[in-house]
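User: For my dataset I need records formatted as: sequence, then structure tokens, nothing else. Please produce one.
Assistant:
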Amino acid sequence: MRTFNHFGVVTDEKKEGAFFNEGLKVWLTDFNSSPNKIEFLKFEEGSCMPELVQKQGHIAYTVPSLEEELVGKKVIFGPAVCDEHLTIAFIEEEGISIELMEIK
């Protein structure tokens, strides 16, 4: 079962408090600091993220099992291990990008 986690909004300006993810070449804000669970993303040239993620916003959900959730889905990025507690993947559904997050 999917549980809403955050909403990603693509911007062309680096927002206050954003940190840089070197591997993905993107500036990110902490959605946990947002009362509306918004993550702002500013992509740099050469980001490995799919164009759909870089051009549109995304909805992110936590899932109990990323492996099970990805069966039969159109995976556009990942799965990618972020750290020992988080693995993510992006899928395309209804023409938009959906981030799926497995948190251990």
